[in-house]
UniProtKB/TrEMBL annotation:
The keyword Membrane applies. It comes from Eublepharis macularius. PANTHER family: METHYLTRANSFERASE-LIKE PROTEIN 24, METHYLTRANSFERASE-LIKE PROTEIN 24-RELATED. It comes from the Eukaryota. This is Probable methyltransferase-like protein 24 isoform X1.
Length: 367
């Protein structure tokens, strides 16, 4: 068709010289034919362009902007390929933007719903392998502490309580106690033993004891506060809480925010098996980095509140929780096997275990 048009116009020029009416008529007819051919040609090429654009759009949805650009087919395709590569790259590497983003942005994205489970202790899951791994883990010190608080039990059957905090000079706690900036949270369930809290209050700590059994909402005795609150791993449903007079159960992160406390130097928890879910909540909500030392009594005679699965699954879950602390640079410096409690592990007398251990960790990232 490209050749047909110039040939037609050349014929028109040659015939103009003769001048006869018949030939003029013939010329007009030829001209009309030429025009028609030209029209068809231009319409055809327009269709071809449209078809080309459609084809591009089909190949890469969302890139029709490039398909409309002028130019021959080959460069247009190259352009499209480039765009598609770009799209694929950004989809395959979602971390590229996180790395460059300010910490505020990446923090917002770290919402966690589950702790990371450690691999099974053995290729075929077995309770004894899981139990022995956990028991070995909780009886192995990861960091030595030269100066601990006084009144720790020297023998396993001592009446003294094993609440150990590390007062080594290289850690910040001892200095914060001297400058009376230390803050201790004590979670318990109406336990009468107050010796540890009193001695910490007398050594320069502001002590907050959470005890749902007291009557007034808050009591202050010197540096020792009592709050009629109990710590949970979830906030109560407001609809239910409204009907309960003494419903004052909150997550630790919520209490920290309510009290305007950004950090706690020591968190002591004696929660009769609620400690596992509370610890999980502190890890998932990233509250643990705000705590300097952890003193937890852990219970292993039953899975604990809202911990489900068969026995090996439960022990693996406990172990994974403690490993999460280690990953956050907490180091175990004190471990106490309580022989005054029943020697039971998941309802069995087995593994030479006690139902109750007291463990203390230092957060080595604590400033
Ligand atoms: C416990 O449950 C886990 C996961 O559901 C399973 O893989 C494992 O074999 C079970 N262990 C025993 C001892 O039944
Ligand atoms: C059982 O535990 C006790 C106290 O921790 C320890 O003295 C004893 O050696 C253990 N027995 C065995 C067989 O491991």
């Amino acid at each position: 068709m490209r050749l047909a048009a110039p040939c037609c116009c050349a014929a028109k020029e040659r015939r103009l010289g003769k001048g006869s009416a018949f030939r003029l008529c013939l010329l007009s007819a030829t001209l009309l034919l030429c025009l028609q051919l030209l029209l068809r040609y231009s319409r055809g090429s327009a269709n071809a362009k449209l078809l080309g654009a459609d084809a591009v759009a089909e190949h890469s949805p969302g890139t029709s902007r490039n398909g409309k650009a002028n130019g021959a087919t080959a460069p247009r395709r190259r352009q499209v390929t480039y765009v598609r590569n770009g799209l694929r790259r950004s989809a395959a590497e979602p971390t590229c933007c996180l790395q460059g983003a300010p910490p505020h942005n990446s923090r917002r994205k770290t919402i966690r719903w589950h702790i990371d489970l450690q691999p099974w202790a053995s290729p075929i899951p077995s309770l004894s392998k899981e139990a022995l791994r956990l028991l070995k883990y909780i009886s192995t010190i990861q960091m030595s502490c030269d100066h601990m608080n006084k009144n720790l039990p020297e023998t396993p059957d001592s009446l003294k309580r094993p609440w150990a905090v590390c007062l080594d000079d290289r850690l910040n706690l001892v200095h914060r106690m001297k400058s009376k900036q230390c803050r201790l949270y004590s979670l318990g369930l109406g336990d009468d033993d107050n010796q540890f809290e009193l001695s910490m209050a007398n050594s320069g700590c502001e002590v907050h004891r959470f005890d749902p059994s007291i009557k007034p909402a808050h009591i202050q005795e010197g540096h020792l506060w009592y709050h009629r609150l109990s710590i949970d791993w979830r906030d109560p449903n407001p609809a239910i809480a409204a009907h309960k007079l003494h419903a004052s159960t909150k997550k630790l992160g919520t209490i920290l925010n309510d009290f305007g406390h950004h950090e706690i130097d020591i968190l002591k928890a004696d929660m009769e098996s609620a400690e596992w879910k509370i610890l999980e909540n502190l890890i998932l909500e990233d509250v643990v980095p705000r705590i300097g030392q952890l003193v937890f009594e852990i219970h292993v005679h039953w899975p604990g509140f809202e911990v489900s699965g068969n026995d090996s699954t439960v022990v693996r879950y406990w172990y994974s929780l403690l490993k999460e602390l280690e990953l956050k640079d907490f180091r175990l410096f004190y471990t106490y096997k309580d022989l005054s409690k029943p020697q039971i592990f998941l309802k069995r007398e087995a593994f030479n275990a006690s139902s109750c251990y007291t463990l203390s960790w230092v957060n080595t990232r604590w400033k």
